[in-house]
Amino acid sequence: MPKLLFNLRGVPDDEAEEVRALLSENSIAYYETSPGNWGISQPALWLEDTTQLLAATELIDRYEHERMVSAQAEYARLKAQGQVPSLLDNLKSNLLRVVATLALAGALVYLPIKLLG
Fold first, then answer.
1. Which residues contact 73 (CB under 8 A, 6 or more apart)?
2. What's the pTM value of the predicted model, to 2 decimals?
3. Domain shared by 24 and 59, yes or no
4. Residue range 80-99: average pLDDT?
5. 49 is in which domain, residue-wise?
6. Do 9 and 64 lie in a common domain?
7. Residue 52: CATH number of its domain
């Protein structure tokens, strides 16, 4: 019986490609399901042979740990160079979205009070 090995929903393309390559390099048989035409199916990598489950999960766990360490090192490097955007930088770059969100939130608070009061 197939076993869910790796959920691909929300996974960046480069990470999904690296996991596929990792499984292929280690001769682990898997198949992939797509999100479907409307995006409601589960995009995932499924293990065909459950006897390989332990080896596959160990490979993926090791890969994810290495990816996390690499991402943390890159963040620390960018932070040391002063290239990490601050909250204020993010607000400035998305000013229209921030203003629209605050206006909508204000309207959602004001209208019920005004209509019921």
1. none
2. 0.74
3. yes
4. 93
5. 3-84
6. yes
7. 3.30.70.1530
The answer to whether the beta carbons of residues 60 and 18 sit under 8 Å apart is no
Say how many domains are in the chain: 2
Task: Count CA atoms closer than 13 A to 53's CA, side-chain side.
Answer: 8
Residues 51 and 16 in one domain: yes
What confidence score (pLDDT) does residue 58 get?
Answer: 97
DSSP 3-state assignment of 64? Answer: helix
Helix ranges, the chain (H): 13-25, 53-80, 87-93, 95-116
Question: How high is the pLDDT of residue 1?
Answer: 82
Both 28 and 75 in one domain: the answer is: yes
Each residue's pLDDT tens digit, 32-82: 999 999 989 999 999 988 999 999 999 999 999 999 999 999 999 999 999
3-class state of residue 53 by DSSP: helix
